[in-house]
Amino acid sequence: MKIQENIPISKLTTMRLGGDAKYVIEISDLSDIPEAYKFAKEKNLPVWVMGGGANTIGRDEGFDGVILINRLRGIEVLSQTADEVVIRAMGGEVWDDLVQFACERGYSGIESMSKIPGTVGAAPVQNIGAYGQDMSQVIESVEAYDPETGDLVIIGKEDMKMSYRSTIFNTGKDAGRYFIVSITIVLENEATLEPPFYNSLQRYIDEHGITEFSPMTIRKCVSEIRAGKLPDPAVEASAGSFFKNIYLDDEQAAEAEAKGLKVWTKPNGSKMINAGYLIEEAGLKGREFHGFKVSKKAALILINESAKSYADLEAARDEIRKIVFDKYGFMLEQEPVEIPAGKE
Fold first, then answer.
1. Global pTM value
2. Does residue 165 carry a catalytic annotation?
């Protein structure tokens, strides 16, 4: 178990903001987990669990506690039939490596989630999704350490309360309670993929004359689309999609359309307005706010070009939200989570 002291959170997160964490512990073995929580308890410090830091914002005051970074690795096929395959992946694996593993073997169900930054353990926390697929469609269970009992527990999909970017792991009384050790997902084996696909993915397929639809082909298409729209966090500091899309009931959707706004209807019948669309319609694409630039390629992305403090981010976020609200009456909600200050 590797324990480090006074580590800048800015070096642990892709937005590159945040003061020092009092302690950082890298978890690379199951036996490290109870020891790390014991360490925090003995010092009377709170714990914050992280993966790759791609959906996490640090504050200027840092974190007066212990950050646990999940480094548990391994991917294995637990069972396989003609129709489906069950895969267990450890929480510290890079999410896109799991997608690559599945697509190389022709397994379908997560190919449209290619190139989402972050780790496997973070994937069920916010129910990640893209281009018509999300974790709720494939996850079977999560194995997690519960520091309240000191036990490894299995949490089934039905108990995760999964909705858009929300689960028991990030919302409600148990938010932040568990350390996710591994996930078990069920994918289709030798699936026959057929159009139509998610709108922007289908447009790319049509424009490039693609007629073969294996999981690997879809992965390559999605990867190309994302590369053309989304900044590489290793090159440009960002936290991925910064604002959540807005889901509407039928009455709200009708009102929005009456105002001339574009409303998307998803395959399950739910209606939404894309937050990036509102930001772009408001004329904010490419504009800079307090050192943060609204990406010219995808208005949902904020790029940290010169900001050094959380105060800059707060000012930029609030200004963008106010402009959108004043124009359209919708208040945008931040997607990345924020590390609290820790002990008072």
1. 0.92
2. yes
